[in-house]
Amino acid sequence: MKNSVQLIGHVGQEPEIKNLEGGKKLANISIATNEVYYKDNGDKVEQTQWHRVTAWGKTADIIERFVTKGKEIAIEGKLTHRSYDDKDGNKRFVTEVVANEILLIGK
Predict the structure, then answer these.
(1) CA dist., res. 22 & res. 35, Å (int)
(2) CA dist 19 to 6, 25, 75, Å?
């Protein structure tokens, strides 16, 4: 099996772009995906999940040029987990999708 994630959703905030040493570019965005279903009694239930997405290189360039808050996009990438120590010395854990492809869907 392959570690592969595909998401279609709306961008929750303006992309955060970082230009790193050596000319590398990093883009961070959050994507909201919505699921709608109905309970047995007919009540509509909407659930929104937020996904942290990171992109490098050319994919980050595309995000910087074309992606804005609210835009509908599709991404494909891999799920990653990492940890770091915050400024207070507490260990923090992050799960994110590292995108290698992006498709602009909405206007």
Answers:
(1) 41
(2) 26, 5, 21
First to last CA, the chain: 35
Task: Quote the pTM value.
Answer: 0.84
Map out the domains of the chain as residue ranges: 5-36+44-104
Distance of alpha carbon 37 from alpha carbon 68, whole angstroms: 28
Cα Dmax for the chain = 58
Rounded CA gap, 32 and 16, in Å? 16
Query: 5-36+44-104 maps to which CATH number?
Result: 2.40.50.140
Q: Assign 36 a pLDDT band (cuts: 50, 70, 90).
A: very high
